[in-house]
């Protein structure tokens, strides 16, 4: 049977690993053609110097049942982004889903370091990677998406608008970057909504990305071994969970009801009924407020 996104074309900008990879794979599992971009290929690594590549992501999209197309792209380069969008237009004639997941800042921030002590070059580089890339990509990709005024734009960030409003996130540069992406979704909602396109912000919860698993010295098949050191990690989720959130949004004929809003993977699981790969429905942001930030012992009962 054809998937609910059969015939749809998606661009996942920043799909080398983590949430971007999970989103691309789940869009493929729903039958979409998915263009996946990033800077790390099988021939060249970005400054992350990690093994995941966009070609690997495209292969996973194909294995899931979709059509994956890897296009090496530096989203800080407007010419490269314009060339990418021109290629999608030439090959597909349409764009139905744009996911702005570009980040690239993991090695550029220091925890709990005030702005006057933080490395300025790294902080400004983080802002360029986290904010400027999204603006460049939207500028060039949205005219193609607007050719068919039923599209979806997803701005991926860390934290809901409600949580980030009341909580200092890591440091000045990180906090500003994540707040800016939330505001971009709000602004795009005002510009795109009247034209029939839905824009929204989406955050995963505590993501078991490839990098996070490495930090804790575990794999996906034994991630619970990290709970002795970090008990609240019990609320974590796979990148496929937020991917299923995007797939559900893209297939929803009434998705416009979320225009301009800030959403989470756990919150949307309650709306659409999807689960993570283990069959659970972790609701990380509610858990963080009610359990972790409240100083209570780790207990995910009722939260996944």
Secondary-structure topology with pairs:
Layout: E1 9-13, H1 18-29, E2 33-38, H2 54-64, E3 67-72, H3 78-92, E4 97-100, H4 120-145, E5 152-156, H5 161-166, H6 172-192, E6 198-203, H7 210-216, H8 239-251, E7 262-264, H9 265-272, H10 284-292
Parallel strand pairs: 1-2, 1-4, 2-3, 4-5, 5-6, 6-7
Helix pairs in contact: 1-2, 1-8, 3-4, 4-6, 8-9
What would your notes on this structure say?
It is a single chain. The protein has 304 residues and is of the alpha/beta class. It has a single domain (9-209, 239-276), classed as Rossmann fold (3-Layer(aba) Sandwich), CATH 3.40.50.720. Helices cover 42% and strands 12% of the residues. It has helices at residues 18-29, 54-64, 78-92, 120-145, 161-166, 172-192, 210-216, 239-251, 265-272, 284-292; strands at 9-13, 33-38, 67-72, 97-100, 152-156, 198-203, 262-264. The chain has a 7-stranded parallel beta sheet, sandwiched between helices. The longest helix is centred in the middle third of the chain and has 26 residues, at 120-145. It is globular. The model has no long low-confidence stretch (mean pLDDT 97).
Which sequence of SSEs, written as H and E, runs from N to C? Answer: EHEHEHEHEHHEHHEHH
The fraction of residues in strands falls at: 5-15%
Secondary-structure-derived class: alpha/beta
CATH hierarchy, class: Alpha Beta
**Radius of gyration over C-alpha positions, nearest whole angstrom:** 18 Å
What's the story with the biggest beta sheet?
Answer: 7 strands, parallel
In helices, the fraction of residues equals 40-55%
* Largest sheet: spatial strand order: 3-2-1-4-5-6-7
What would the CATH topology be? Rossmann fold
CATH superfamily: NAD(P)-binding Rossmann-like Domain
Number of strands: 7
Task: Give the number of helices.
Answer: 10
CATH architecture verdict: 3-Layer(aba) Sandwich
Distance between the ends: 30 Å
Give unreliable regions as ranges. Answer: none
Total domain count: 1
* Overall spatial form: globular
Mean pLDDT: 97
- Specify the oligomeric state: single chain
InterPro entries: NAD(P)-bd_dom_sf (IPR036291), SDR_fam (IPR002347)
Protein name: Short-chain dehydrogenase
Organism: Streptomyces brasiliensis
